[in-house]
Amino acid sequence: MSQLTAPTHTVVDNIPLWLRIREIMKEQGSSYSLTAMAGRLGMSRETLRLMLSGEREIYSFELEKITQDLKIPLARLLQEDIVELKPAYAILIDQGRLEEAMELAKYRESIAIGLSEKVFSSASVAWVYFWKEEMDTAKGIIHEALAAAEEVNKKYAFQGVLTRVFVVFLNIYTHTEELDKVLGIVERLKPLLHSDPINMGVLYVALAKMKYASFENAEAKMYMYKCLELFIECANRDRIGRAYINTAIAEYADRNYEQAKELLETGKEYWENDKVRLLGLKELAKTHLKLREFQAAESLIRTALRTESFEQLMDIKASLIILLSRAAGSTSYAESVAMNLRYPKQARYHAYRHLTLVNKQEKFLRRGKSAQGKSQGRIPTKRFPLDKNF
């Protein structure tokens, strides 16, 4: 780019400069029509029209006149004033400092001008709500942003803003497992994510869940492995840790318990997020139980209950305690969950269900033993899916 030529895009959101100027003009009102503005700038309306439709380059001296006419600093127009916010925001999210990340996102939203920048900033706010797991709020914001992004893309063919909104939309609805919402954008997303391995991986997770819903388990597991490969390539530790858990769950569902255990043991080093670590430990305990490694399961669960913080994660704590009942061969642990109102209703239901199944199994086995003296036939042992619900 020549020093005489102005930048073609903004430095943070990569918004085409001509589009950025047009959107700000639109917000400024009728005094910023092409005719009125061309008159103040001392150029023909046609020249300005060509500049602001991307058909003619904008020179630096022309951009300076435009910023003066719009009464906006050049740094604000080019987004140079927020260039340091983007990496700081990403670091805060990676570190789990979500309140600080929200402050940055809200600040950016407060200074945004032009429709495209406002959509990008709204997506940033929705992204923080996603990580805070305030999904209803995140959904409300991203739906408004999606409508605006569709408008920009339809009118000006700017896909960048639509891609960003789609990515947040994809993550939210994959997490909440509202896969019908994701299905509506899958075909539009695929070509947009070829150079974005992290979000292509998220798309694979969504596709895997859709395959599970239609009982196509082999294809679902294939997508989970594809996701794991992508995340390993892009070296995102949090995503890698989650992918190992998802892939292990797929192997567990296929009764490949040794393979599931191996994946979880490999993924342990990536479980830096508290919730991810606890979910991984829960899945590892389940594989130990399936492999009849009861002492290993009991040791793992007791260590986790003693050393981990379960604030805001009482559902996972309840699941571990119910699994401890199986590992230790005592119903007292599941009873402690069932009778404690501090645990979520769903967790208490799972505890009651576990106790009910254990009771039924014991009654069945007792009945079988008492009938052995009366019959020479052999009563088969019935298996109950004690870990089906957690």
TrEMBL record:
InterPro entries named among the record's database cross-references: Cro/C1-type_HTH, Lambda_DNA-bd_dom_sf, TPR-like_helical_dom_sf
Entry superkingdom: Bacteria
Location of region: Disordered: 367-390
Molecular-function GO terms, alphabetical: DNA binding
Domain HTH cro/C1-type: 21-85
SUPFAM superfamilies associated with the record: lambda repressor-like DNA-binding domains, TPR-like
Identification of the protein by name: HTH cro/C1-type domain-containing protein
